UniProtKB/TrEMBL annotation:
This is Cytochrome P450 hydroxylase. Heme binds at residue 389. InterPro entries: Cyt_P450, Cyt_P450_E_grp-I, Cyt_P450_sf, Cytochrome_P450_Monoox. The lineage of its organism: Bacteria, Bacillati, Actinomycetota, Actinomycetes, Kitasatosporales. Pfam families: p450. Coiled coil: none annotated. It comes from Streptomyces cyaneogriseus subsp. noncyanogenus. One of its GO terms (molecular function) is iron ion binding. Belongs to the cytochrome P450 family. Its cofactor is heme. Residues 441-468 are annotated as: Disordered. Keywords: Heme, Iron, Metal-binding, Monooxygenase, Oxidoreductase. The keyword Transit peptide does not apply.
Length: 468
C-alpha cells in the first residue's frame, strides 16, 4: 500500500502500534461521529495499515457519483464471495453491470407492488403469533419478519416451499457465516461451525427449487421466476449456479437493514406518543383493520415519512470504496489502491446538514422544500451511483408494510430496566437489548370508512418521498 499523503490529518485517538483499532472496536459509532465534527478527510490507522475516512458530503458524492470511475468496491466486499460466490453485492466492473441488468427486473415498481401481498401476509403471521402481555425481543422479531418477507418474495410457488422453509430456519446462520468470512477469512475457512453445516442443507434446497422452477417453465410472479427469465446484453440467461448464489446473497444482504429499521421505529414510537398517535390515525383511517395492498401505500404518506426519517437517523454505519488510480478529493491527493470509508450514520446525524438531528421528525420529509438545504452526499443510506443498493425500494416498502400491519393491531411498550443503545452489527446499527411488551389495540375505523377499491391496485404506485 502506498505511503499516506502527509497533508491529510490523522484522526485523533490513535494508540501506539494498534492505531485506531481500539476506538473502532470499543465504540465505532461514537468514534466516527466524533471525527466527523473535526474535518472533512482523515487518515485512520488499523495496525500497520492506513485507510481514510471521508466526512464531508461533497467528498462522499465525488466517491460515489461524480468521480465513481476512479473507485471500485473495497477489498472487504470480497468477503461475500468467499462463501457464496461472485454475487451482485460483491462484484465490480463488467461483472457488476451484467449481474445488475439481470437482477433489476425483479425490483421494478410493478414487481414490488406484487410483493406487497406476501409482505402483508408475513407481517400478519407475526402479529397473530403474539399474546397480550407477551415480552417481544424486538430485534429478533424484526429479523425473523424481514427474512420471512424476503423468502415469500423469492418463492411464491409450492415448488419453492422447501427452500423457503430452509431459508427461514437457517437465514440467520447464513448471516453469521457472512460476517465471519468477511472479518476473519482464515478462521472461516478452518472452523467447522454449525452455521456452515446448516448452510449445506439450505444450499441444496435452493438448488432443488431452481431446478424445479426451470423444469416447470411457468412465471410464478416471484423473484426466482424473474431471475430465471432475465437476459444479459448478449441474450444469455443466468446459470443455475448464478441464480443459487444470488438467492443466498439476497438472504444475507436483505435481512439486516429492514430489520434494524423496523426495530428502531417501534422503539421510537414508544417514546413519542404524538408520532404514534399520528401513525395510528393514518393506518386506521386508510386500512380500517385490513392488510395493506399496493393501492394503499400512496395513501399512507405519514407512515412512509416515518420510515424514511428512521432510516435517516439509523442507517448503516459504514461504507467504503477503493481507488483504482490516483484521485483528488477536496484539497487532497490520494494514490491508487487505498481504502476510503464513509459513515452514513455520522453524515445523517451531522447538525451541519440536518437540523436537530437527534430528534425523529417524520415531517422533515414532507416536501422538497423541507429538505432543500440538505446536500445530496449527506443522504447515503443505500449508497449512490453505480453500486447503489438494488433493493432500496424493496426495503422501504417492506418496512412500511411491517409497521402498518403490526401497529394496526399492537402497541409495543418499553420493558422497565432495559437500557437500549445502538450497536454496530456487520454494516447495520441495531438497538441492543430492546424487549417490549405487546399491548393489543383495536383499529379506530372512522364513520363512513370503506375498504379500498381493489381496482385501484393495478394503477396505484407508492408515493416517492423527496430525497435531498
Amino acid at each position: 500500500m502506498s505511503s499516506p499523503p502527509s497533508t491529510i490529518p490523522e484522526a485523533p485517538g490513535a494508540w501506539p502500534v494498534l492505531g485506531h483499532l481500539p476506538a473502532l472496536l470499543r465504540d465505532p459509532l461514537g468514534f466516527l461521529s466524533a471525527v466527523t465534527e473535526r474535518g472533512d478527510l482523515f487518515r485512520i490507522r488499523l495496525g500497520h495499515n492506513t485507510v481514510y475516512l471521508a466526512t464531508h458530503p461533497e467528498i462522499v458524492r465525488t466517491m460515489l457519483v461524480s468521480g465513481a470511475a476512479d473507485f471500485t468496491r473495497s477489498k472487504g466486499a470480497a468477503g461475500a464471495s468467499r462463501f457464496i460466490g461472485p454475487i451482485l453485492v460483491a462484484v465490480s466492473g463488467d461483472s457488476h453491470r451484467r449481474q445488475r441488468r439481470m437482477m433489476q427486473p425483479g425490483f421494478h415498481r410493478g414487481k414490488l407492488d406484487h410483493y406487497v401481498i406476501s409482505m402483508s401476509a408475513a407481517a400478519e403471521e407475526t402479529a397473530d403469533s403474539w399474546r397480550p402481555g407477551q415480552v417481544v425481543d424486538v430485534p429478533k422479531m424484526a429479523s425473523d419478519l424481514s427474512l420471512a418477507m424476503i423468502t415469500k418474495a423469492l418463492f411464491q410457488s409450492d415448488l419453492g416451499a422447501a427452500a423457503e422453509a430452509e431459508l427461514r430456519t437457517t437465514g440467520h446462520d447464513i448471516l453469521k457465516v457472512a460476517r465471519l468470512s468477511a472479518l476473519a477469512p482464515q478462521l472461516y475457512t478452518s472452523l467447522p461451525t454449525a452455521a456452515k453445516r446448516h448452510m449445506g442443507r439450505t444450499s441444496a434446497a435452493i438448488r432443488e427449487a431452481v431446478t424445479a422452477y426451470r423444469a416447470d417453465g411457468r412465471d410464478h410472479g416471484d423473484l426466482l421466476s424473474t431471475m430465471l427469465r432475465a437476459r444479459d446484453a448478449e441474450g444469455n440467461t443466468m446459470t443455475d449456479d448464478e441464480v443459487h448464489n444470488e438467492i443466498m446473497g439476497l438472504a444475507v444482504a436483505g435481512i439486516g437493514g429492514p430489520a434494524a429499521l423496523t426495530a428502531w421505529i417501534f422503539h421510537e414510537l414508544a417514546h413519542d406518543h404524538l408520532i404514534e398517535q399520528r401513525l395510528h390515525a393514518e393506518i386506521d383511517t386508510v386500512l380500517g383493520g385490513r392488510l395493506p395492498t399496493s393501492a394503499d401505500l400512496p395513501r399512507l404518506p405519514y407512515t412512509q415519512r416515518l420510515v424514511k426519517e428512521a432510516l435517516r437517523k439509523y442507517p448503516g454505519w459504514v461504507g467504503s470504496r477503493r481507488t483504482v488510480r490516483p484521485v483528488r478529493l477536496g484539497e487532497h491527493e490520494l494514490p491508487a489502491d487505498v481504502e476510503i470509508m464513509y459513515s452514513s450514520y455520522a453524515l445523517q446525524r451531522d447538525p451541519r446538514w440536518y437540523r436537530d438531528p437527534e430528534k425523529l421528525d417524520p415531517d422533515r420529509w414532507e416536501s422538497k422544500e423541507t429538505t432543500r438545504d440538505v446536500p445530496k452526499g449527506a443522504w447515503v443510506p443505500f449508497a449512490l451511483g453505480t453500486y447503489k443498493c438494488i433493493g432500496d425500494n424493496f426495503a422501504l416498502m417492506e418496512t412500511a408494510v411491517a409497521v402498518a400491519v403490526i401497529a394496526s393491531r399492537w402497541r409495543l411498550r418499553p420493558l422497565k430496566g432495559d437500557r437500549v443503545r445502538p450497536v454496530a452489527k456487520a454494516t447495520h446499527v441495531f438497538p441492543d437489548r430492546l424487549r417490549m411488551i405487546a399491548e393489543p389495540r383495536t383499529p379506530a375505523i372512522p364513520r363512513g370508512h370503506a375498504p379500498a377499491d381493489a381496482s385501484l391496485e393495478a394503477a396505484a404506485r407508492p408515493k416517492e418521498l423527496p430525497e435531498p
